[in-house]
Write a structure and sequence with these properties.
Elements: E1 9-15, E2 19-27, E3 33-41, H1 44-47
Antiparallel strand pairs: 1-2, 2-3
């Protein structure tokens, strides 16, 4: 059984007291898969980098 994707991209967040990690997986127009992982601190000065 093969699963059909519902969305072409998804983001997951892993939230901890001292940091937040965001993981992106996205299907490109050519069918390849792009992944990206970013980690940010939870202090106010660090959260500004999330934008």
């Amino acid at each position: 059984m093969e699963l059909e994707p519902i969305h072409k991209s998804a983001i997951g967040l892993d939230v901890h007291q001292k940091h937040v990690t965001a993981c992106l997986i996205a299907e490109q127009e050519d069918g390849s898969i792009h992944t990206e992982t970013l980690t940010f601190g939870t202090f106010k000065r660090d959260r500004g980098m999330c934008q």
